[in-house]
Each structure stands twice: as C-alpha cells, then as structure tokens.
Prior knowledge:
Blueprint: E1 4-8, H1 13-25, E2 28-35, H2 42-57, E3 65-72, H3 75-79, H4 105-120, E4 124-126, H5 142-156, E5 161-163, H6 171-185, H7 190-201, E6 213-214, E7 217-218, H8 224-237
Parallel strand pairs: 1-2, 1-4, 2-3, 4-5
Antiparallel strand pairs: 6-7
Helix pairs in contact: 1-6, 2-7, 6-7, 6-8
Amino acid sequence: xxxxxxxxxxxxxxxxxxxxxxxxxxxxxxxxxxxxxxxxxxxxxxxxxxxxxxxxxxxxxxxxxxxxxxxxxxxxxxxxxxxxxxxxxxxxxxxxxxxxxxxxxxxxxxxxxxxxxxxxxxxxxxxxxxxxxxxxxxxxxxxxxxxxxxxxxxxxxxxxxxxxxxxxxxxxxxxxxxxxxxxxxxxxxxxxxxxxxxxxxxxxxxxxxxxxxxxxxxxxxxxxxxxxxxxxxxxxxx
Length: 238
C-alpha cells in the first residue's frame, strides 16, 4: 500500500490540483520544483504562496505536507531555444509543435524526481501531465509516463509509481476536481475555498504576468496557458 508521494509542484493550476489530490490520498506528501531558467520564473514565488495558503486553509492536510524541494535544472535553459527559456514570441514550428515545448524537460524532471524520491523514501511521483488539454508535447503522453515508470523502477531497482491524475481530463474537469477535493476534506465550503485559492495564488501564464487580475486568476490572458485556463474556468462556472 502506498503511503507517501512526491508531487512535481510548479505552483500552477494543474500542479496545485495534483497536490490536493496527493494530500487527499497519502499520509506524507513532499513537493518538488525546478529552476530551469524559465521566463515565467514568478511561478517559483507563487508556489510558496500556494503552499502557505493550503496549510492555513486546510488544517487536515497541513500535517501531511512535508519538505519542499527546489532543484537547479539550469542546463535545460542552456540547451533549449524555446519561448519558455528565451525572450521569443510564442509560435508554431515546422515540427508541428509550439516553441513552448522544452525538449526533454519532463524526462529530466522525472529522473531527478525519482532520484529524490529514492533518497527520501517516497513511493509515488505525482505529475500534472495531460493528453487532453495539451499542445502535443510528446513528453506529456501516457505512453511516455508508462515507459518512464518502467525505466526508473528498473534503474533505481525499486518500484516507483508515476501517478497522473489529470491525464484524461480537460481544464473544466480539472477545476471541478479541485472543487471536489476541497469539498471532500472540508464539507463547509472547502470546495469553493480551494478553487479561490487556485485563482488567487497559483500561476500558469507562460509570460509570467502577475500584473493583470482576472476572474480566473493572474496572467496575460493571451498565451496558450492562459487561454486554456480562461476557457476552462468560464465553462466550469456555467
């Protein structure tokens, strides 16, 4: 029986929902983020606000929240010519993928997460990758996650589970999942409280814009990440 998890936690909507999922399921949950030279580095600050807000608002979850880790993955920024690591306009490339795709990012993240989980004695790695609302990133696919789970378990000589609670749901369902998880832990308004927490404290915008506040949260409102969040939130509120 699995009792502990490591959540890949960027501080965005998806990873905050994944954190809530892990806290509702496991007794001990640690979090991990990466500094890889991303333009939206503000997410590294936002994530700390999310953690503090979740501990304050959900006392049932607070004792389960273990150490938070931040690893330097700057090598990705050195080798990636993408709009997430360079001051470049977001556009489609000849490969058919948007230039927001950082090659190898999730593969490296999962490898480092597995090494940390091994050292910390954590059994499950939780990540917010998704095949429903995504831009075709090959390292977000279910097949990739399954292959990584096998490779990392073999390489560490320890069975690791990679859990992807958002894999087959869209942004509307992700907002709903957050509401349901909050409601489950606190029937007296916890669902709305978790949704409000995500709106106010999480960060998803690729451009790192925290100057514009919308009903769905902070962001430029134009980049692909913002657009997914906007559409999902508006449909969720209907």
